[in-house]
Amino acid sequence: MKIVEVESLSFTYAGVKKPALSDINLQIDEGEFVLIAGPSGGGKSTLCRCLNGLVPQFYEGEYSGRVVVDGLEADKTPIHVLSQHVGMVFQNPHNQLFSLSVESDIAFPLENLGLPREEIRQRVEEALSTMRIEHLRDRSPFELSGGQQQRVAIASVLAMRPRVIVMDEPTSYLDPLSASNLFKTIDEVRSKLGLTVLLVEHRVDLAVARASRLVVVAEGRIIYNGPPRTFFEEQNPHLYGVAYPKVVKLSVRMRKALNSWSKTCINPEEFEEEVRKLRGGL
Amino acid sequence: MSVLEGLRFRPGNTFVHRLDPRVKLLTSVMILTTAVVHIDIILIGLLLLVEAAVITAARVHRLWLRTVRGAVPLALIVFIISFISQYSREPSILVSTGFALAYSFRLVVFLSSFSLFFLTTTPDEMALTLQKMKLPYEYTFAFVSAIRFTPVMAEELRNVMDAQRARGLELDKGPFLRRIRNMIPILVPLLVNVIRRSYELAEAMEVKCFGASKKRTSLRVLKLRRADVFFLCCAAVLFVAAVAVKVLGLEPVKLYPNLGRYFPV
Fold first, then answer.
1. In this structure, are residues A66 and A43 in contact, taking their beta carbons and an 8 Å threshold?
2. Domain span holding position A113
3. Is the residue at B8 inside a domain?
4. CB-CB neighbors (< 8 A) of A168 in chain B
5. Domain enclosing residue B157, as ranges
């Protein structure tokens, strides 16, 4: 079932001549893990904001096309209704935590929605345990590391029980280890709750192995949309401002050099397997 | 973080911390009123003792002493002024000292009367109290955000200052006016950052359904427990007694002429 459908979407921010997005077409199945990559200023963030109605309801401009997420038209549904279907996690963890304790931060959107207290309590517990941050319950946001803050932000989005989560560079303030751990958790939560995840990320090497699909956006257009492996086989990632993971680069070279090398590997495990196969059960 | 040292973010676990914030607020108001009504040195001293006892029970006396110490310069000014004015009326060093002491002492009690509330209440509880006082949620939210973002802004200020210093801006040298002018390269980027941040915050608030429902629920509720009622009763009895002393004119200063000679009546 298609959970996200974007049809010939174009958008130009008010006061700007150059369109941020032009003629975007994208369909995403339920349960997919989509990695969105591309150069800065290429339209990735704008695309994310179209999915939860921030464009065109919060940002004004010239909008055309159709975006349907979980059966709702994104430009006509109020953002607070849409938010319960599409959760959004932003880049800067500081700017999306509003309260003085983790618990009240997770409860914040639910309180705003006016849900009954018992239900809020239950959902907060659920979100805390899903993100494995029960021990942080009473901490204040200044006492948390960047990775923990992002976990809290994700938990507060999960508490709204969306079916799609859009993340706009959630790891850009994190160190590599925290980033890698965060991706792992995101993937676990996705498969556990059957969520659809759209992840905008520059750290392609860490994210690509978990993604079922890669979408490359540059200059407001979709340059590539398909399995991650094929992209690296067919294109030069640097041309589109996408990082070229070392293991992929190496296996592409091996493939050119050795006829018996069978595929482009997108993670170290695949690479190891390939080497073992070649050496006959090392 | 020093900006917010006095504010506790995690609920403490003493009897006083667990009290309903409204009870503590009311008690603080009663302490303040008593200090305003009375000038009697004995009663003010008793009041300070009671306050100190409650604050020590909450184990925040160190922070409280710091607040009291902060009030000392102001108290000193009051001491000097009332000493001079009393001395000009009646040139007796002993009497003037007694008067000045009573007035400055009262000021210290006056200034530290809200310590009980502020030192033992988390900002979240303060927000709940504001909400209970029927303040619209937008105001409560503004209050919480102000506390929430103060450290963030402080860090930003430090970053901007470092960045401008690295470009050769001298902040600590030169005459006063030059130093003021040198603040402009700090304030402009800071302001730009604040505006940018406010956009991001607005976006996040939108996504987190801010203002979606007119009837907002809150996860935590304030409930008066038996201990709260008990504490409030004790405070009220003391308060009524203090007011009665005033109304009936039973202050120690009035009863004992010796005391009344040196201290204000």
1. no
2. 2-227
3. no
4. none
5. 126-207
